[in-house]
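User: As part of a screening pipeline, I want to sanity-check one entry by hand. Below is the sequence and the SMILES for flavin-adenine dinucleotide. Please return the complex as structure tokens so I can compare it with the automated output.
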Amino acid sequence: MDKGYDTLTEYILIKYRWAFVCVFLLPISLFYDLWFYFRNWIVFKFTSAPKQHDKKVKYVQKQIREWGDHGKNNYMCTARPGWQTVCFRLPKYKNTFTKIEVNLVDILEVDVKNKVVRVEPLVSMGQLSATLNPLGWTIPVLPEIDDLTVGGLVMGTGIESSSHKFGLFQHICVSYELVLSDESLVKCTKEDNSDLFYSVPWSYGTLGMLTAVEIMMVPAKKYVKITYLPVIGEENIAKQFTAVSTDKNNEFVEAIAYSEYEAVIMTGVQTDNAESDKINAIGKWYKPWFFMHVMQILKINSTVTEYIPLRDYYHRHTRSIFWELQDIIPFGNNKFFRLLLGWLTPPKISLLKLTQTDAIKKLYSNNHVLQDMLVPIAILKNSLNIFRETCNVYPVWLCPFILPYNPGMVYPKSRKETLYVDIGLYGVPKVKNFRAFEDMKKIEKYVTKVNGFQMLYADTNMTKEEFRKMFDHTLYDKVRRKFKCEEAFPEVYDKVSRAARL
Ligand SMILES: Cc1cc2nc3c(=O)[nH]c(=O)nc-3n(C[C@H](O)[C@H](O)[C@H](O)COP(=O)(O)OP(=O)(O)OC[C@H]3O[C@@H](n4cnc5c(N)ncnc54)[C@H](O)[C@@H]3O)c2cc1C
Ligand SMILES: NC(=O)C1=CN([C@@H]2O[C@H](COP(=O)(O)OP(=O)(O)OC[C@H]3O[C@@H](n4cnc5c(N)ncnc54)[C@H](OP(=O)(O)O)[C@@H]3O)[C@@H](O)[C@H]2O)C=CC1
Ligand SMILES: CC(C)=CCC[C@@H](C)[C@H]1CC[C@H]2C3=C(CC[C@]12C)[C@@]1(C)CC[C@H](O)C[C@@H]1CC3
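Assistant: Here is the complex for your manual check:
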């Protein structure tokens, strides 16, 4: 029996999780998706959603009114079950707070004239790309995991390989509609209710219930012409990655670092014309996992160009959940598995979460890192070194983004628009004697020192004071006082801290 497992049952449950996942979770995931596909299709065809929207918002208001009538004796949160969220942990507060049903799942209007799509908060990224792309439109920042929701991305944050041009998910949002704790419905934009508008991102549902969002749209083309550039040497990686990230001719930029010295930098532009022999529909079930495909290019060590259908490009990391699925189904990228069962993958993140045993949870908590650290790109090389010394997790996802100097919790301390990079660490740490709490705390301290930020879906080991140092609460506190949020919702920290999550 391997070291680190307390009992034989624990060992079997973890080592052979793939058997449970393949036999049960994959078919259930498929039915779940088919049901949503069918339901959305009906809703879209008969355009019933916009007609229902006002009624559904009134229901949110009614529930908040009832919370007030019952003496406001505890906080509110959405009724979305914790296991459905794209986050490793379960929010404990869902068991005790008053749960408000915000059952708003539809795309309300595609306004081609004003280039804006109006959506409800539970619309997922898979749903949005499937709806908009066939119509010839897309949103400028479309985070890649299908199940991410607009509400979660607005209240937390969202990033994608186009973020070096357009910023984070909130930077492409034009307006938010919220029901506040006094049951009033307000719309905020940069011009109207601007304090609220700038305080909503990163507020994690602690200012009000989001009911609709207007998001910018841009024209979509058929393919992304992608150039893979293998780069060797840590100095080169940082230098070349920074250079392509500042070049606005690149519509998409990301990199995967496979070790301290080896990375593949990918740049892309949208196009309608592809060289037919270079089309690679990477999203098809029998195709290799994207990060494995990229690793092959690193091995041949020469620049490669190909054309990926737009929607396949957007969801390129979905099928292998970045590189997380290899720990769950170790043979998932095997040619025969892909041909036979690839169309059933990936298992839904929500179902993986729902069915994980305590032993799996313990293993992930103590010996697995799921973190995204956002730091100024100028210190990329140093940050990669620190992260390697502290946890040594590879592959590493690198995604540049532009951070405007806007009011709110997250802005460059330099007080001018600054290019940042998201360093995504997902996997098993290879340092000897990794200590989840102490080592991640060390990284958090470093990130705060360099004016960086930690994504809120990830575990945080910070104290409230440290958290307030990383995220500027000045405007947030003012808005919470103004809209009487203090009696209705906890502070962000009290929703994301270790104590608030199971
Ligand atoms: C409507 C819809 C909703 C989805 N919702 C989710 C989700 O909640 N979570 C998730 O993980 N994945 C979702 N997906 C993605 C899904 O899991 C598959 O990845 C996807 O359906 C793959 O099929 P495809 O690429 O062949 O579909 P596509 O070729 O992308 O689309 C199939 C057809 O559906 C039509 N269509 C697109 N949008 C809509 C719509 N809103 N209503 C009706 N017809 C539409 C298009 O015109 C297209 O012809 C959704 C997909 C669709 C089409
Ligand atoms: N590429 C990317 O950018 C990726 C981003 N992520 C992260 O995942 C998270 C999004 O996951 P997802 O499952 O969609 O969202 P979640 O359900 O995790 O929601 C995140 C927060 O937003 C709040 N929220 C959601 N909808 C509403 C609403 N209608 N009104 C008020 N508050 C709301 C939730 O409040 P409550 O607790 O009350 O339910 C929760 O605190 C984000 O934190 C994002 O940063 C993860 C992976 C990739
Ligand atoms: C691109 C950005 C910014 C973030 C990507 C983060 C994701 C890779 C993780 C977010 C939640 C994670 C979970 C898992 C894998 C990695 C994420 C999707 C699991 C599926 C791993 C297996 C566990 O049993 C359940 C996890 C749920 C959350």
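Points to compare against the pipeline: The first strand starts at residue 76 and ends at 78. The pocket of flavin-adenine dinucleotide (ligand 1) is lined by residues 33, 36-37, 40-41, 44, 107, 124, 126-127, 130-131, 134, 146-147, 311 (CB under 6 Å).
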